[in-house]
Design brief:
The complex is a heterodimer.
Chain A (H helix, E strand, L loop, with lengths): L3 E4 L2 E5 L4 E7 L6 E7 L5 E8 L4 E4 L2 E6 L4 E6 L8 E8 L7 E3 L3 E6 L1
Parallel strand pairs in A: 2-11
Antiparallel strand pairs in A: 1-3, 3-8, 4-5, 4-9, 6-7, 7-8, 9-10, 9-11
Chain B lengths: L3 E4 L2 E4 L5 E7 L5 E7 L5 E7 L6 E2 L10 E5 L2 E6 L8 E8 L9 E3 L3 E5 L1
Parallel strand pairs in B: 2-11
Antiparallel strand pairs in B: 1-3, 3-8, 4-5, 4-9, 5-6, 7-8, 9-10, 9-11
Classes of the chains: A mainly beta, B mainly beta.
């Protein structure tokens, strides 16, 4: 049974700092991995999708990497801003494209001005 | 991409009543899903809404409690029946894009925040 873990559960950083959020999964047979952002009381916003054959994806200040063999993904946020404050969720789909998304518990990020 | 809207955005309901949540996607999608997010928790899949056939429910969720309709490729409803305070959660509609530049990306609606008294 696939399990997804995100560490740390919460993180507080000063504005401008570069930071890394971690996601690990127990079964390396994944189809893809997706990072989401959730603002309090809101739905999820898709940030990046990495297919199992890819190593990383970039969008603006965000860079997500995937190491399938070790069961890890990281989300790198450059030059953090107070507007980045939110909960970041990692989810994996597998083993095939018909698999359901399995979510981690999320990392709640606070960026202080 | 897909833009998903939900109605209502929030509701406060009495125990024993039912609430139907509507989900509209701005494009035709093959796969739609309903999730529940209990306070302080991550997302749990309730069911896959299948167009033209009965929904596929995950373990722990049953059709009598969470009936789902999917009349076409852009719309679905989830009903939370005979509600109890334990049903207080955010309910999220989701759709997976299976063609174009955003293939395989799953999108979510803004959620419906339900409080049962």
């Amino acid at each position: 049974k696939q399990e997804v873990t995100q560490i740390p559960a919460a993180l507080s950083v000063p504005e401008g700092e570069n930071l890394v959020l971690n996601c690990s999964f127990t079964d390396s047979a994944i189809y893809n991995l997706q990072w989401f952002r959730q603002d309090p009381g809101k739905g999820l916003t898709s940030l990046l999708l990495i297919q199992s054959s890819q190593r990383e994806q970039t969008s603006g200040r965000l860079n997500a990497s995937l190491d399938k063999s070790s069961g890890r993904s990281t989300l790198y946020i450059a030059a953090s801003q107070p507007g980045d404050s939110a909960t970041y969720l990692c989810a994996v789909r597998g083993p095939s494209n018909t698999g359901k998304l399995i979510f981690g518990q999320g990392t709640t990020l606070q960026v202080k001005p | 991409s897909a833009v998903i809207s939900q109605k209502p955005s929030r509701d406060i309901c009495q125990r024993g009543t039912s609430l139907t949540i509507q989900c509209q996607v701005d494009s035709q999608v093959t796969m739609m899903f309903w999730y529940r997010q209990q306070p302080g928790q991550s997302l749990t899949l309730i069911a896959t809404a299948n167009q033209g056939s009965e929904a596929t429910y995950e373990s722990g969720f049953v059709i009598d409690k969470f009936p789902i309709s999917r009349p076409n490729l852009t719309f679905s409803t989830l009903t939370v029946s005979n509600m109890s305070p334990e049903d207080s959660s955010i309910y999220l509609c989701s759709a997976r894009v299976t063609s174009g530049q955003s293939t395989d990306t799953q999108y979510f609606g803004p959620g419906t925040r339900l409080t049962v008294l």
